[in-house]
């Protein structure tokens, strides 16, 4: 049944992007216990970076109208650099919106507001510079790769396979890093108990920066990938993904890396299964899931139970 | 200042109070825009589809607006009662995310339903007032009523119970406080305020669509309280007035205004972690009052 | 009359058996002490009685009524108040407000009267404040009435927590290590205060404390817990001589 395979691949490709997105949330949440509401803006930024680096020209409405880089990088390199660029911005966001609050021991709730402020600034800065129109990454970007492949009788877009493969590699690399490396273990220690980790000689400030850096990198890459497979629908297009990412995050379990991956795939597949007649409701699927999970199993599928010490 | 902006500011203050009520109880609920949207939709539907409400005069009768408010309050109240029972078992960021989900589900549903006008929304909502000044006076009275309710709440038993839950829910339960019911009370009151505010906003804006209750609105209204302060009702009122006015006041800087707005909500909590209005600042202000400001007879306080 | 009966109580946290087959009966008007090393399950027993921790086996009866499984606010309303080992005051509220919150169940007023600030409402509110101030005075905290709880010294916080617990006019008061962090003079003061309170308010007290001399001098009866099991029960004299207690806890140094 070709239709089913197509559906499956579609769902997995979208789910992989959600997973990348949610992983960024989860990394920051696991070390700080708060959600970075500027994450959606980093995703958007990654998409625009990718577009510019492959040699795309800016439209006529922004401050830098008509700008075009004098070189055009291959897509994979542009994507990688976009990730790095988003990571750098994530570090700036950490520096101005999170660190001052932490230094003063303020209510972590405030970080929701400050990070949102950072997000608002970023999104509107993008709009100021390149305008509000949508951009799409041209088909020829992938060089000699065919637009679609035929697998077992099903027609599958190459972009989606590519997206799935890149997301898979990133997820694998991240898992290996967290479980296998010294710094990955240190990150786990900080998320377990920041004070004890500090006493054991782990520099938690450093680990928080690393978490933000990786989180921004993943968001930037995800943005570039979505830009390639769909389009860049204006400076605000990261917000919708940002919200769905929350759904993925909660479904998998806040702070759980495998949970974010599982949650992303489940929601991606579920959205792909929404019949065409109800496609308007597609965007509600993630939130419906989220709501149910919170009521039935608040710690998420793979999260640890919440307990309060008396 | 333009009267239209003043109405928007007053509506902002009301929404700030709606976010403030659960927060005073320690519950971070971002559901306010959802209930606001329901209130607005109720008003938009009733006033455009029910001819009996339109009356015979040239302007839409205020009595009909009041009736819409009652119906909106009923609907949001019942909904908040049911949803609150479910979501208030969650704590901290989990509650916040669950309420974001509620608002988003509601938005998507409104966007797709035939009778709410879909993505276009509902247009031509009749006007009970000819001028913005009329709306200003009406909204001001409403705001005064809600402030008065909040003030009484803070100074009485349920208000003390709410403050106790905010500080330590478990210890509050050990004092015989029914924490579930108290949190629910705050949540329902918050929904009522948001729903009623939606009714006024729908008439004032003349049209209504699903966009008015989105995630941006959730966070903007939260910013009202965080910047204004969440210890007394004056905080969200002040924050709501200020932050609603800000983008308009910043119009001269043109395209930069949203960037400046972002900078304000980024820097505000860093400089004033307790918000602008705190009890300490109010007391200090009161101590330094000019001599002509006589002390009103303080009934019942030693 | 037996006020509180605990029968065959068992609580397990994962692989840890925190309480195992504990039996207790607290008589009206007595000061009943719980002794035992750290981790013996004393606070867990308090948490079960006050409805914060569910029991796996056994029952808790208040007078004739089974109360295991009731939520903690209902148990509090039956007349069981408690303090916490690690102090759980309402930090951002003033001392006066902390005590007023303690009076919650007796402070109910018609909502409309409260909303309209009727004279009857204000009279009752003044009366409640007066009572709260008197309670604070009992613990020497009247001068701090308007101060935030967070700004108090450690000993004053312990006293404020007792005042808050008494504000609910309980029949049974559960005190979890009320003397922790106090110097010997303060401990002696506390002993006298608890004695006086029990008489003045016709209280029954169930108390956890590590300081053995204080407990021997204060309590009418004592139970000793070790590894979640009750290993002794009796008057201070009996407990002091119990060989199991000497071995497990007092270490041969009565």
Walk me through what this model shows:
The complex is a heterotrimer of chains A (310), B (302) and C (254). With 310 residues, chain A is an all-alpha fold. Chain A has one domain. Helix content of chain A is 68%, strand content 3%. A two-stranded antiparallel ribbon of chain A has the order 1-2. The model of chain A has no long low-confidence stretch (mean pLDDT 86). Chain B has a domain of 210 residues. Chain B is 69% helix and 0% strand. In chain B, helix 10 runs antiparallel to helix 11. Chain B is globular and about 55 Å long. The N and C termini of chain B lie far apart (43 Å). In chain C, 39% of the residues lie in helices and 24% in strands. Chain C contains ten helices and ten strands. In chain C, the strands form two sheets. In chain C, strands 6-7-8-3-9-10 form a six-stranded mixed β-sheet, sandwiched between helices. Chain C has a four-stranded antiparallel β-sheet with strand order 2-1-4-5, covered by helices on one side. In chain C, strand 1 and strand 2 form a beta hairpin. The longest helix of chain C is centred in the middle third of the chain and has 20 residues. In chain C, 43% of the residues are buried. The chains are: A mainly alpha (310), B mainly alpha (302), C alpha/beta (254).
Largest chain-chain contact? A-B, 47 and 43 residues
State the helicity of chain C in percent bands.
25-40%
Q: First CA to last CA of chain C: what distance? A: 31 Å
Stretches with pLDDT under 50, minimum 5 residues of chain B: 297-302
Secondary structure tally: strands of chain C: 10
Strand order of the largest sheet of chain C: 6-7-8-3-9-10
Number of strands of chain B: 0
Number of domains of chain C: 2
Rounded to the nearest angstrom, the distance between the terminal CA atoms of chain B is: 43 Å
CATH architecture of the largest domain in chain C: 3-Layer(aba) Sandwich
- What is the N-to-C succession of helices and strands of chain B? HHHHHHHHHHHH
What is the strand content of chain C?
15-25%
Structural class of chain B: mainly alpha
Radius of gyration of chain C: 19 Å
Q: Which bin fits the share of residues in helices of chain B?
A: 55-70%
How would you classify the quaternary structure? heterotrimer
What is the CATH superfamily label of the largest domain in chain C?
P-loop containing nucleotide triphosphate hydrolases
Give the count of helical stretches of chain C. Answer: 10
Q: Which structural class matches the secondary elements of chain C?
A: alpha/beta
């Amino acid at each position: 049944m070709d239709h089913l395979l197509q559906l499956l691949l579609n769902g997995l490709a979208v789910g992989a992007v959600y997973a990348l997105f949610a992983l960024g949330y989860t990394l920051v949440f696991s070390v700080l216990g708060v959600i970075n509401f500027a994450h959606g803006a980093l995703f958007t930024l990654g998409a625009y970076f990718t577009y510019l680096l492959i040699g795309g020209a800016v439209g006529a409405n922004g401050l830098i109208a008509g700008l075009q880089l004098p070189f055009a990088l291959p897509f994979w390199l542009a994507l990688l650099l976009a990730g790095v660029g988003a990571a750098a911005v994530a570090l700036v966001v950490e520096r101005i919106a999170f660190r001052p609050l932490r230094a003063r021991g303020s209510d972590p709730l405030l970080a929701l507001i400050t990070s949102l402020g950072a997000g608002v600034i970023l999104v509107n800065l993008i709009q100021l510079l390149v305008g509000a129109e949508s951009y799409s990454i041209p088909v020829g970007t992938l060089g000699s790769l065919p637009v679609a492949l035929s697998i077992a009788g099903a027609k599958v877009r190459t972009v989606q396979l590519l997206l799935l493969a890149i997301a898979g590699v990133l997820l694998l690399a991240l898992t290996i890093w967290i479980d296998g490396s010294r710094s990955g273990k240190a990150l786990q220690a900080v998320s377990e108990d920041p004070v004890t980790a500090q006493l054991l000689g782990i520099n938690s400030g450093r680990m928080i920066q690393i978490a933000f850096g990786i989180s921004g990198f993943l968001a930037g890459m995800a943005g570039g990938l979505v830009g390639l497979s769909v389009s860049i629908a204006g400076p605000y297009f990261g917000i919708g993904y940002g919200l769905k990412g929350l759904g993925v995050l909660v479904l998998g379990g806040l702070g759980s890396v495998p949970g974010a991956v599982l949650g992303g795939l489940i929601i991606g597949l579920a959205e792909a299964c929404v019949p065409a007649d109800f496609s308007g409701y597609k965007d509600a699927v993630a939130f419906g899931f989220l709501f149910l999970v919170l009521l039935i199993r608040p710690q998420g599928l793979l999260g640890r139970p919440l307990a309060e010490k008396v | 200042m333009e009267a239209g902006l003043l109405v928007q500011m007053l509506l902002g203050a009301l929404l700030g109070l709606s976010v403030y009520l659960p927060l005073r109880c320690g519950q971070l609920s971002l559901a306010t825009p959802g209930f606001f949207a329901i209130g607005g939709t109720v008003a938009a539907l009733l006033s455009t589809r029910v001819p009996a409400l339109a009356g015979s005069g040239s302007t839409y009768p205020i009595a009909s607006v009041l009736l819409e408010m009652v119906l909106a309050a009923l609907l949001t109240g019942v909904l908040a009662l049911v949803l609150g029972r479910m979501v208030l078992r969650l704590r901290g960021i989990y509650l916040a995310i669950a309420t974001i989900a509620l608002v988003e589900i509601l938005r998507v549903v409104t966007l797709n339903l035939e009778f709410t006008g879909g993505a276009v929304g509902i247009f031509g909502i009749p006007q009970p007032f000819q001028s913005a000044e009329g709306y200003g006076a009406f909204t001001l009275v409403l705001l005064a009523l809600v402030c008065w309710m909040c003030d009484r709440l803070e100074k009485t038993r349920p208000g003390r119970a709410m403050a106790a839950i905010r500080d330590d829910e478990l210890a509050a339960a050990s004092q015989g406080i029914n924490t579930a019911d108290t949190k629910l009370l705050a949540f329902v009151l918050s929904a009522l305020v948001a729903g009623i505010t939606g009714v006024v906003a729908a008439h004032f804006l003349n049209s209504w669509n699903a966009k008015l209750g989105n995630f941006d609105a959730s966070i903007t209204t939260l910013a009202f309280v965080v910047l204004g302060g969440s210890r007394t009702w004056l905080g969200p009122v002040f924050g709501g007035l200020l932050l609603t006015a800000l983008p308009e006041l910043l119009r001269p800087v043109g395209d930069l205004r949203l960037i400046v707005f972002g900078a304000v909500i980024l820097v505000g909590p860093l400089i004033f972690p307790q918000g602008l209005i705190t009890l300490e600042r109010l007391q200090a202000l009161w101590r330094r009052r000019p001599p002509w400001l006589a002390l009103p007879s303080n009934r019942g306080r030693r | 009359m037996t006020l509180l009966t605990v029968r065959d109580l068992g609580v397990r946290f994962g692989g840890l058996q925190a309480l195992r087959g504990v039996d207790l009966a607290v008589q009206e008007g007595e000061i009943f002490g719980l002794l035992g090393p750290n981790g013996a399950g004393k606070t867990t027993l308090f948490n079960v009685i006050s409805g914060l921790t569910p029991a796996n086996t056994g029952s808790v009866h208040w007078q004739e009524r089974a109360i295991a499984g009731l939520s903690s606010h209902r148990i509090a309303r039956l007349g069981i108040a408690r303090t916490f080992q690690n102090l759980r005051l309402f930090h951002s509220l003033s001392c006066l407000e902390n005590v007023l919150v303690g009076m919650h169940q007796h402070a109910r007023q018609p909502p409309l009267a409260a909303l309209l600030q009727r004279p009857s409402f204000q009279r009752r509110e003044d009366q409640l404040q007066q009572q709260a101030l008197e309670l604070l005075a009992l613990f020497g905290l009247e001068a701090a009435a308007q101060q935030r709880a967070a700004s108090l010294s450690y000993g004053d916080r312990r006293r404020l927590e007792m005042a808050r617990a008494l504000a609910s006019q309980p029949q049974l008061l559960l005190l979890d290590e009320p003397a922790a962090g106090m110097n010997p003079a303060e401990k002696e003061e506390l002993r006298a205060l608890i004695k006086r309170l029990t008489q003045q308010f016709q209280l029954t007290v169930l108390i956890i404390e590590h300081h053995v001399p204080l407990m021997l001098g204060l309590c009418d009866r004592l139970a000793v817990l070790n590894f979640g099991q009750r290993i002794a029960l009796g008057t201070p004299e009996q407990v002091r001589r119990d060989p199991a207690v000497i071995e497990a806890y007092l270490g041969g140094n009565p």
